[in-house]
Design brief:
mainly alpha
Length: 191
């Protein structure tokens, strides 16, 4: 696993690694933009799943059960946003405006269409995204500029996620602490 944390302070390296991967995608557009958009979301999802392991270690509350936290899907970023805010006070979209959110919705929808429909627009995509730039059965095209904007927004979301987790960890300093280096499926029995 490439994601982890500093052995001295326990600070997570997730955003640093994600940013390095995204930099590589921005600097190397040898691939088609529609291929890159799939990679951008996949890289974000991998990073978010690693950070999610930290959230799973937090004690349950009546509103937040570990099993529900495990089921957060970062492919469905709007649902993830709502759950993270409700359960942890993490504002995944902090700093994004409504145009940014609409753009994310369209790009995530396009990624879905590219992966599952061979790029062909379906009615569900049109209904969910309100994308007026395409028609039913049209083949989706993604531009380099759109990918660059998507990367910028994904960086913001990733930073917000990590800042939220780190702020939770800071709240525990001097009180109850959680060893975020401990794998989620292996409880720490050293206490």
């Amino acid at each position: 696993m490439e994601y982890g944390c500093c052995p001295s302070c326990g600070k997570l390296n997730a955003v640093k690694i994600l940013n390095s991967k995204l930099d590589g995608l921005v600097n190397d557009f040898k691939q088609q933009p529609d291929v890159v958009v799939k990679q951008v979301i996949s890289e974000f999802e991998a990073m978010a799943k690693d950070v999610q392991r930290c959230l799973i270690l937090l004690p349950e509350t009546p509103q937040r059960k570990v099993e529900a936290v495990k089921k957060i899907s970062f492919q469905r970023i709007f649902e993830a946003r709502d759950k993270l805010d409700k359960w942890f006070g993490i504002e995944l979209f902090k700093g994004l405006n409504s145009d940014d959110e609409n753009f994310l919705k369209v790009m995530l929808g396009r990624r879905h269409i590219l992966i599952h429909n061979g790029g062909s627009v379906d009615q569900k995509y049109l209904d969910e995204t309100n994308d007026t730039e395409v028609r039913l059965y049209q083949t989706i095209k993604v531009t380099e500029e759109e990918v660059k904007k998507l990367i910028e927004l994904i960086r913001i979301c990733a930073n917000n996620l990590l800042e939220g987790v780190e702020s939770i960890r800071q709240l525990g300093k001097g009180k109850v602490t959680y060893d975020f280096r401990q794998p989620a499926n292996q409880p720490d029995h050293s206490h």
